[in-house]
Amino acid sequence: MYGSISGSGTRSGAACLTRTSYSAVFSVVTPKATRVIDRFHVMRHAILAVDQVRRRVRSVIARRRWQDLDAEIAELDRQWR
Q1: 15 burial class (0-12, 13-18, 19+ CB within 10 angstroms)?
Q2: Cα distance between residue 30 and residue 62, in whole Å
Q3: From 4, 32, 63, 68, which residue has the greatest number of CB atoms within 10 Å?
Q4: Which residue has the higher pLDDT, 35 or 63?
Q5: How many CB atoms lie within 10 A of CB 59?
Q6: Nearest Cα to 13, choosing from 27, 1, 21, 3?
Q7: How many helices, marked H, and strands, marked E, lie in the chain?
Q8: CA dihedral 14, 15, 18, 20 (to 10 degrees)
Q9: Is the pLDDT of residue 64 over 90?
Q10: What distance in Å separates the CA atoms of residue 62 and residue 6, rounded to the nearest whole number?
Q11: Beta bridge mates, 74
Q12: Mean pLDDT in residue range 49-69
């Protein structure tokens, strides 16, 4: 969950997972420590956020395509009747 990042042996800062529950515990257990987020976790959160947006956009586009296709089929049905 966390590790020392100071060179003197005393814990002046720590890397911590960025979840809210961990952050709350971290603040209670080590109130004077500086929180640090490493590059891996920053990139992981960014990639997950972009992926969530991409999935939402794809689902909206797919729904619109099906709605357009359904409307086109309904129009063809009306023309052939």
Answers
A1: middle
A2: 48
A3: 4
A4: 63
A5: 10
A6: 3
A7: 2, 2
A8: -20
A9: no
A10: 51
A11: none
A12: 89
Residue with structure tokens 């086109």?
Answer: 72
Instruction: Report residue 58 CA to chain centroid gap.
Output: 17
pLDDT of res. 19: 62
Is pTM beyond 0.85 here? no
Here the tokens at position 20 are 């809210």
Q: What is the mean pLDDT of residues 60-69?
A: 86
Please give the structure tokens belonging to residue 22. Answer: 């961990």
Token code pair at residue 65: 């395509």
pLDDT, one tens digit per residue, over 2-55 is: 444 444 555 444 555 556 677 788 788 888 887 777 889 889 999 999 999 999
CA atoms within 13 A on the CB side of 22: 11
Letter string b/e over residues 17-43, b meaning 16 or more CB atoms within 10 A of that residue's CB: eeeeeeeeebeeebeebeeeeeeeeee
